[in-house]
TrEMBL record:
Protein name: Uncharacterized protein
Species of origin: Ditylum brightwellii
Origin superkingdom: Eukaryota
Record-linked InterPro entries: Hybrid_Histidine_Kinase
Amino acid sequence: KNKSKDEFLNYHEMNEGSMTAAMKFLQILLNSSFIAKQEYLPLIIGQMMQLTLHHGICKESCAALGYLSFLLCEFEDFKESYHTGQLAILLLEKLQSKELLPQVYLAYFAGAGSYIRGVKF
């Protein structure tokens, strides 16, 4: 698992302007969906992860991973949720995405972070 984590962290960065713009738009939708329409989260997260895997990592990939971590808790897959959340935080640090820190932490600690530490809301 550490190898796949390292491979993902060293994945090429997204450099296509249109794909970066799409990720920025999807990130805005992700924020709104988290608050108002969580039933859309799987669709938005799936699209963001698909763009990330096909075109490379970007700052918005951190948000997608953070919310994927939250979503995995819905399936009670707390172990993978925890690992995905940790990957989101590591990617955040690598890309120096300080502006997304609150968003990623919110998604992570609302999900896996609270379950792993035994805190339930």
